[in-house]
Amino acid sequence: xxxxxxxxxxxxxxxxxxxxxxxxxxxxxxxxxxxxxxxxxxxxxxxxxxxxxxxxxxxxxxxxxxxxxxxxxxxxxxxxxxxxxxxxxxxxxxxxxxxxxxxxxxxxxxxxxxxxxxxxxxxxx
Length: 125
Hints:
Elements: H1 9-13, E1 23-26, E2 32-34, E3 43-46, E4 52-59, E5 62-68, E6 73-79, H2 85-98, H3 112-123
Antiparallel strand pairs: 1-4, 2-3, 4-5, 5-6
C-alpha cells in the first residue's frame, strides 16, 4: 500500500467533505478510527497527537469522522467515548439547526358550529 499524499491543514480544511456543519477537534492520540460503527470492525487508523478530526455523521453510539494528520487523511467511525462531550453537544446543535423548521403559524381550527352552519346553508342554496 502506498502512503497517502501529505496535505496541509489548510488543504484539509478546504476539502468539501469537511462540511460546514461538521464539528472539528484535535486528537489526543488514543482514538481508534474503525471501518464501521462497531467494536468488531477493523481499525483503519490509530489517532495521533497532531491530528484533527471532523465529525460528519452519527449513528447510535458511533460518530462518522474524517481524521487527518501530517501523514494521511482517513474516513471512518469513532466510538462516542472517544469524542469529547462538548464536541458531541456541538454536533447535536448543528444537526438541530439543519432540520427544517415547521411553521409556527397555526390555523385556527374550525369550530363545530361553523361547520354546522356551512352544512345547513349548503343544503338550502
